[in-house]
Specification:
4 domains, 5-stranded mixed β-sheet, 21 strands, about 35% helix, about 20% strand, elongated, disordered N terminus
Length: about 525
């Protein structure tokens, strides 16, 4: 063989290499490094595992292999031995949690081979884990003994109940169950007495404005002049196709009231007058404003007494009919109607919701205005006072409103009445429980079935106050007084009667436009036309 061949062919040099050496030479360096790392890791693991293993002469050896035979120690004997050690050898000043830790450490040193011992071993390991937590600083309110140690003692006692010969331990006092502290009562921001009907009248004005608007100017008692009544939402008529019959009666001191229709360009067109003690009837359409004026007989300027515009036809219900049957002018079936009476305002009386002296008083039975009150009571002005008659009227109108909503959308009023009765019943059964007198507005069921319906008027009439997303009633401490409970009980009777009427009676045929498409004949009122 030539020298050149010997320098290039290593396999044939000096008789050739062994196959294993040749195989190792061709292994990549990365694989060699990984194999070496695994070998070192296994060696270290075996070293530390042998170091942790107890010696043969240490106490607590459970298994001894003699000539291939195994001597086993039963679980009951181990547990009995542990109990004796913990009760006799533990110092008297040692706490229960530390005693349990000693028990767990002693049990860990004993090794049981039989299969039934696995469950007990798992329990001891669990106790060991609890003991580690028990060594943390204890709560001062628990008498220097942690709750975790109590749980450990209860676990140990359950695992040792099979040992009939085990003596009682000194940690029985820590096994007393801690009584849960009752939650603090809810803090309400409402008043103990009825706060008045101001919140109800504000809600009432919003609901009735969906059907009509009465814009009444204020009257100056010193100059006997009227401030202007502005109706910015409807400066002119809208072209609509839903008719409504209106009837206006004059019971004022004025001999005649002139009536003007505001056309599509915003101009007032004279349509007649209403004599004192007489009535005026007119067929108009939804979205057509009207102006009622007085004066001008002596050549002076007329003063606006009232501006009125119908927005929707209120659904007709039993006891509050708002439709009549007519078969003329191409109209067949029920036609919506609205009637009201103009009256004088007594001296010293103002409106309930705003507190000003109006130029006239509109008496509407179906969609009433807030009542007039005498502002001076023993020389002091008080708008929050109300009479029992006012509350009864507010509850009755709210019940009628739930019937109207049920007539417009079947099932709405029934669901609102049932849900409201449940809330009121809870209050009457537990008048001292504040959680039943605090209703969260953000609750979906409450918002849809009660807060957004006529049932909200019932709650406001009963004195529920709205604060920070809640409707609250009564004080935080103590129960509702007898007077307020009686008012809630009377309201429940009215709501239950309304519920029976909605369930038992058949649906009344509604006039055109009362289903929500009321303003100018298109769009739901309150969504598309506001």
């Amino acid at each position: 063989m030539e020298i050149g061949d010997q320098s290039t062919n290593h396999d044939s040099f000096d008789g050739g290499e062994e196959p294993l050496t040749s195989f190792i030479r061709h292994i990549p360096e990365v694989v060699k490094l990984i194999a070496a790392s695994l070998f070192v890791a296994i060696a270290l693991h075996n070293f530390f595992l042998r170091k942790k293993r107890p010696s043969s002469n240490s106490g607590g050896v459970a298994n001894n292999n003699i000539l291939g035979t195994t001597v086993e120690t039963s679980i009951e004997e181990e547990e009995e031995e542990d109990i004796i050690i913990s009760s006799e050898q533990a110092p008297l000043h040692q706490s229960s949690s530390q005693t349990n830790c000693v028990e767990a450490d002693t049990k860990k040193k004993k090794k049981v081979v039989n299969k039934p011992a696995k469950k007990a071993s798992a329990i001891r390991n669990y106790n060991k884990l609890i003991c580690k937590e028990a060594l943390l600083p204890s709560d001062d309110n628990n008498g220097g003994k942690s709750i975790t140690a109590d749980a450990t003692n209860s676990t140990n006692s359950s695992s040792e109940q099979d040992s009939a010969s085990s003596p009682p331990t000194e940690t029985t006092g820590t096994q007393i169950q801690q009584q849960p502290t009752p939650p603090p009562p809810l803090k309400l921001h409402s008043q103990a007495n009825h706060p008045g009907l101001s919140a109800y009248y504000n809600w009432h004005a919003t609901i009735t404005s969906l059907y009509r608007i009465y814009a009444i100017p204020n009257r100056d008692i010193f100059t006997n002049t009227f401030n202007p009544a502005i109706l910015p939402m409807h400066p002119s008529s809208e072209r609509g196709n839903i008719a409504v019959n209106i009837t206006v009666a004059n019971q004022t001191r004025y001999e005649s009231i002139q009536v003007y229709w505001i056309d599509y360009k915003g101009n007032e067109i004279y349509k007649g007058n209403v004599p004192r003690g007489g009535s005026w009837v007119q067929t108009t359409f939804i979205g057509h404003p009207w102006t009622f004026r007085v004066g001008g007989s002596d050549g002076g300027e007329e003063s606006v007494l009232l501006k009125y515009v119908p927005f929707r036809i209120a659904p007709t219900v039993l006891g509050a009919e708002t439709a009549t049957s007519r078969e003329s002018s191409g109209v067949v079936g029920p036609v919506g109607t609205q009637s009201f009476t103009l009256r004088d305002v007594p001296e010293g009386y103002v409106t309930r919701n705003e507190g000003y002296g109006p130029a006239c008083w509109v008496d509407d039975e179906i969609l009433p205005e807030p009542p007039l009150i005498d502002t001076y009571n023993n020389g002091e002005r008080n708008l929050s006072l109300f009479t029992i008659h006012e509350m009864q009227m507010a509850l009755e109108w709210s019940c009628f409103q739930m019937q109207r909503e049920d007539a417009a959308s079947a099932g709405t009023g029934v669901a609102a009445s049932k849900r409201l009765l449940k809330y009121l019943q809870n209050i009457c059964l537990q008048p001292d429980n504040t959680k039943y007198r605090r209703l969260r507005v953000g609750n979906r069921i409450f918002f849809e079935s009660v807060y957004s319906t006529g049932a909200r008027g019932i709650l406001l009439a009963l004195g529920f106050e709205e604060f920070m997303g809640f409707l609250e009633c009564g004080p935080s401490e103590g129960a509702l007084n007898y007077e307020r409970l009686r008012q809630i009980s009377d309201a429940m009777m009215m709501v239950d009667k309304t519920l029976r009427l909605m369930v038992e009676n058949e649906a009344v045929v509604q006039p055109e436009g009362s289903d929500g498409y009321g303003r100018a004949g298109f769009g739901y009122a309150g969504q598309l036309n506001i």
